[in-house]
Amino acid sequence: MSTRKAIFVTGGASGIGRAIALYFAERDWFVGVGDVDEAGMRETLGMMGHGFSYQHKFDVRERADWDEALDGFATAAGSRIDVLANNAGIPLGGSLMENSTEEIERCLDINLKGVLFGAQAAYPHLKKTAPGSCLLNTASAAGIYGTPGASVYSATKFGVRAITESLDGEWAEDGIKVRSIMPSFIDTPLLDHNPNARANEDIRSRVKEAGLEITPVEEVAKAAWDAVHGEKLHTVVGKTAKQIAFGARWMPGRVRKQTRNSTRPLGK
């Protein structure tokens, strides 16, 4: 087994996944990225300062593809995987009645099934490198308190939070850490997408209009590193996320009132 630690990051072609991959690469880890965007993955690998890297094109919704991706990465990394960053996910905004069946199913499949399948596939690899190995799930501030205009997305991120807490209990005796990061609005290309097929305004515009903070993606990458090496189960990232977490815990009535009085839901 190689002595160089190894992390595999899904959604590694851009955004948070790319930032996590680069952050670990800078600290001399062997880094693998998985995504459906082959060109984006090549760009990510090209930005790394060393050659200890690997890419694999696959769809996180396909359980068998997970085994192929992680087995290939483990072989390339010297028979080890220390961290799986279960990061791949897609946004979906707008009122529930605006969301199509296809949009709902796609969001549920990628954001929830993808995380569960990744955990299943990663388990034997993480057990091999335990104690100290880690499953790192990307949740969201939308998994702290339900976001108006993002009921489906919020449901998936509450689910990721629950998966993290469940597996933290299940895998403790194996010495495998299970952690989540819970960022708010992060400065990535996803903010420039429309929240749903019927919307005519991108997410970034809505966030700015609402006066919410957009957090630099590098902050999330550092939080991921800290989560993998720390003891905190959920790591909240960004000013907005921290405010939501504080309010939901200590002032739930006020958070509910603010939520109900919000001018319009994201994506409308």
Automatic annotation (TrEMBL):
Keyword Lipoprotein: no
SUPFAM superfamilies linked: NAD(P)-binding Rossmann-fold domains
InterPro entries to which the protein is assigned, alphabetical: NAD(P)-bd_dom_sf, SDR_fam
Keyword terms, alphabetized: Oxidoreductase
Family: Belongs to the short-chain dehydrogenases/reductases (SDR) family.
UniProt-recorded name of the protein: SDR family oxidoreductase
